[in-house]
TrEMBL record:
Source organism of this protein record: Arabidopsis arenosa
Tagged with keyword Repressor: no
Coiled-coil intervals: none
Keywords: Methyltransferase, Transferase
Keyword ATP-binding: no
Name this protein carries in UniProt: tRNA/rRNA methyltransferase SpoU type domain-containing protein
Amino acid sequence: MLCGCAFASQSVSPRHPFEIKTSVSKLRALSAQLPRTQIQINLLIDVGSDKSPATRVSLPSHVNSITSTSNPFVKHCLKLRQSSSYRHAHGSVLVVGAIPIREVCMFQTNKQGITSEIECLLVHEEAQIPQGLESLSIRIVRVSSLVMKKLSGVQSTESVEAIALMRIPSSFIDLEDDKDIKTDCNKWFPSSAHRVLVLDSIQDPGNLGTLIRSAMAFNWDGAFLLPGCCDPFNDKALRASRGASFQLPIVSGNWNHLKVLEHEFQMKLLAGHPATSTQKPKLVSKLSVEFAQSVAEKPLCLILGSEGNGLSEQSRKVCELVSIPMAGDFESLNVSVAGGIFLFMLQSRSGS
């Protein structure tokens, strides 16, 4: 397989916005039409005052090993790991580690009946192809320890058997602005929208990845990311999710989009909130078996707030607040821990 790519000649910071002259949706549609043996995406990116076109980088078909960290393809892969905007513009992501790669491939093959969307697999030059991946019909590129270390982002690469360059799954939907309000929300969560986890400005990628993994484990139907959330395809989020970001339908949108979903499926909005708070007093229900049973048949959105500030004012205003009763003298739990409890208690009966 020949993997061709494009990236800006200057480094793109994930914290600074840039303008993509061709829309992301058109780029993804274009890349999907290209033969799988040659994936080439041409971008024109503005970074500050730089108006120069992006440089196209192609990995020739005869190249089966890379030893230098200065290789253009390595630089492209590094930007995919470091920059959310670059990642989504190219529709590609690095997945580090044989375990999450295997889990993604197994899910896509066994549950969806489709082949894995791996553009190429990077394996250490002296290592064997990891078990479970040797039978995949994909391009293998051998890389040196220095390249593996640089791309993995970890200090020790002994536990990193492989890195996969994969396509961002079609189960991820980015509702860019309010022009997407009229889109068919029935397509956001194809199987069902009975249980949807809504994350409100979750900025820690470890927490976000853990919550997505827990939602997958407790058979929730999908996750909805409100503004302020980190990228679910951030490398730390991917490690925490163990591949669940490729399995669980994820929608990135705003409150207007969420209101459309709420109205379409007549969903009840619940929000996790400490029983005691300095905010304006509002009735806070206690999470219990009885409470869970009372909402078992109702479609639910469970909203969890950010690590530092908790729920946004909008969430507190429109949602029924629910707290986890704690015998210990402590105000609150880590959001991923609290989320795991909520997701377990409120899971669908079919998943219990």
